[in-house]
Fold this sequence. Notes:
21 strands, mainly beta, four-stranded antiparallel sheet
Amino acid sequence: MAWIKKDDKVGFIDARGELVILPKFNQAQPFKENLAAVRLDNRWGFIDREGSLLIPAQFYQVAPFSEGLSRIEATPVELFSPRKFGFIDRTGKTVIEPQFDWAEPFSSGLAYVGIYSANSLGSQTGYITPTGQWVMQDIPGAGASFSEGLAARRVQRPVDPLQPFNLEYDYGYANPQGQWVISPQMLSSQSGLTSIQQAGPFQSGICGD
């Protein structure tokens, strides 16, 4: 099904273009794992393919379900309080409490998350399991979600003391065990295909599984 907008309200049509869910939502995301996120007023919930609201609209932000879990942003306790991310299951039950300053959806059984601190020594980044257990914690560089069994990771190059604000990064790919499959060497990375520029003479290529 695909969402359509009529009179500033969003509904859904089927593959034949027939209206199957009346336009009554303020905003909607595509169906994934047979559930679609919808916004009513200023909060998000989830509907099934019949349009029934299975998970009440109560979240500040949500992501589509992935591997049975949805990343949610809890409604801030105060107007300017820090945003926190957690995960719910298909019943709307919170399975991982909102505690992360950033979180990616689950992929290949892992989700990249971060807890940041003004003091870098107090920051934590890494991957968690669907039970919230940390794995591959505080490994070097910034990470991303897994795609086809690999996750792109960014590692900062040593800083040139003569150009302290000119930060450069290398990119590589790690497997779910945290081992480098492709050592950091890339300057740009995208899911599936990767443009490669190696230090020294310019080289351009494509990298994929």
